[in-house]
Amino acid sequence: MTWSVISLVSLFLLTVEGRAISKRSASAPSNWRDLIGDDVYQYYLDPKTHRPGNGGFFEGDIKGVDKTAAGGEKDANGNAVLGQNAVMSKSQLWPNALVPYTIGSGYSSQQKSVIVGALKDMMSKTCVRFVERTNERDYITFVNRNAGCSSYVARTGGQQQIDLQEGCIYQFGEVQHEVMHALGFFHEQSRKDRDEYITIVWDNIQKDNYDQFEKYQSNLLGLTYDYDSIMHYGWNYFALDRSQPTMVPKKKASIGNRKAMSPTDIKKINILYECTGSRAPAPSSGSSSGGSRPSSSGSTSSSRKGTSIWDLILGRGSSDNESGTARPTTKKSSLLSSIFSGLFGG
């Protein structure tokens, strides 16, 4: 893939040619260490011109979907309907919550320590286990191609790259954001109930990026909206005027946390992988990712009556009649909404 993006926004697609960015020049920053927080994710550099541009990833940092493809959404291989990275089925979670990984050679020892530290922090708070790959078929690999921050969603099979360039590995939360995509999560503000919690300022959003603010019938996991999630966009992502917001919380809250996982982020992972804290789910047979896990009887979802975890994830029996601020309709956004409704609907 030749186009990449540094925005998590989701992570992901700003066109800022000739426009100041947070009082910085629109040209490439001289030192990525000068960029932290939201600024990191608002930069995408065209690999040919080294100028900010439009990365083309779905929601800014999600790989595998060509959002500009004529005739509808297509994956990186030209296949229709979002492709393998977005089908949220149980088979695409990491078996037994075990994720093999490798770290590419393009990182300094300090950068590697940030990546490993972020993974260890996730392991200390969830049942997911990250292990250095030996010969497992399915695994994630962290690569630095000076191509921004991006990840596929859920387990796609085989080698699965997470792009993290220098500006993306300043804090644990920046790494964990992309890793949460790989575990199977989309962005917080894509929730179907988001209009109860935030107001979208459509007049200040770049027209080509309206679809970055779609909402979908998706996996609420029985949890309330989380302003502090590391999966939430920042307040001015994809803004025409970056001094003004594109999203306004309806409660007094800040959004765009990239320091570390919120308590609700931690709960999401443990619910999705059917475990409690550091206790793993029972091992499944025929794990395609390899490795083994100790069994556990501590699954919180196994005791649910009448509604399985996958009923919650897929939204079975729920409705999507929430009200909210109307957005301009485009053919692209209508198609995308229909696709997600089909994927996540009952």
TrEMBL record:
One GO BP: proteolysis
Keyword Disulfide bond: yes
Matches recorded under SUPFAM superfamilies: Metalloproteases ('zincins'), catalytic domain
SMART domains given in the database record: ZnMc
Binding locations of Zn(2+): H177, H181, H187
Cofactor(s) the record lists: Zn(2+)
Class of this enzyme: hydrolase
Active site residues according to the UniProt entry: E178
Amino acid composition bias (Polar residues), ranges on this chain: 318-332
Entry protein name: Metalloendopeptidase
EC number(s) given by UniProt: 3.4.24.-
Coiled-coil spans in chain: none
Bound cofactor: record note: Binds 1 zinc ion per subunit.
CDD domains hit by this protein: ZnMc_astacin_like
